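Course assignment 3, question 2. Fill in each field.
Student: A.L.
Task: Predict the tertiary structure for the chain below.
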Amino acid sequence: MIDRSRLLRTRVHHEHNKVAFIELFFDLVFVFAVTQLSHSLIEQFTPMGALHTAMLLLAIWWVWIYTSWFTNWLDPETIPVRLVMLALTLAGLIVSASIPQAFEARGLAFAGAYVTMQLLRTAFALWVFRASDARQTRNFARILAWLAGAGVFWIAGGLAEDGARLALWALALAVEIAGPPAGYWVPGLGRSVTGDWNVEGGHFAERCGLFIIIALGESVLVTGATFADLAWTPAVVATFVAAAAGSLAMWWLYFDSNALRASTRIASSDDPGRLARLAYTYVHVVLVAGIVLSAAGDEFALAHPLGHASAPTVIAVLGGPALFLVGMTLFRWAMCGEIPVGHLAGAAALGMLAFAAAWLPPAALIAAAALVLVAVAAGEKVLARRTAARADVALAP
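Answer field:
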């Protein structure tokens, strides 16, 4: 007989639960998934291709973030939880491998593996909590009901074709995305509140930071692989340096101080579930989308660094960083109640660059976009130092 209470993580006040190796192994599947998404977007950079990529990105993010909530409560070092994580990893490989043809021949494979991940993980958590926690039992029963309802649309979409698949999968995503704000309300079971989602904030923040690393790592991989296959002309080398500088600036903007501040904030919050839902579960997908779009821009600019910048190149090179800065603005607002003016100014500057795109070759355009990101990062660092200096003066005797 399994003592199900031993499958839960042990929490120690003011201590941060470590990320387990099985969680990092699970993340490798999503390195593959993000790479598949980027390549799909590059190959089909059309309004419909962008819509398909956006929907698949939401699905990939949703299944990953739900699993991060799962391992925040359940201990992945225990054998039963580890076996579930390995099963999720296998299903995740099928999901990832199906991405390029998810709206074609492999729709049912994608949907079937995706629904399996969502239901298996949630049903297992429900089974664990039924032994010791009535509140969480009701919470996971509600979540399971909503995911099962969404699963009907996922499977139906996998069986359908063309526009019908698109519509059914959009409904499935709408159900899943609406679940948390609706408290997963179910007749007879009521609704969950953010107090039911009492996550260990340090672990949850670290997990989401690791996904940003996954997305940035994929961007570096795409840029490096493309650069390696090209003739290293001055224009190509300059474009590569600019693309790399943009990725480094995005890393700096997220990890230099914002990630630590946010982690400290959620770890000390009286309602960490609310912050985890808004700032991490919802806002972080905007950051990931910006990084994926930027990676496509890097690929386009490297392939054709000189001459006229095509519409896809302009949209990806400028839109990716702008979307990332908007995501960072939302993240800071959600976590700290601040609106970073520098981030909004940077996004505006990228928008203004679009008017000059007709006169700039892709190499110059991506260099300008990288310069904006570096300027925003540098400005934020200077402002942080000035704020700290003023605080030191105010505290001085």
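Instructor remarks: Residues 391-396 have pLDDT under 50 and may be disordered. The chain has two domains: 18-192, 201-392.
Grade: pending
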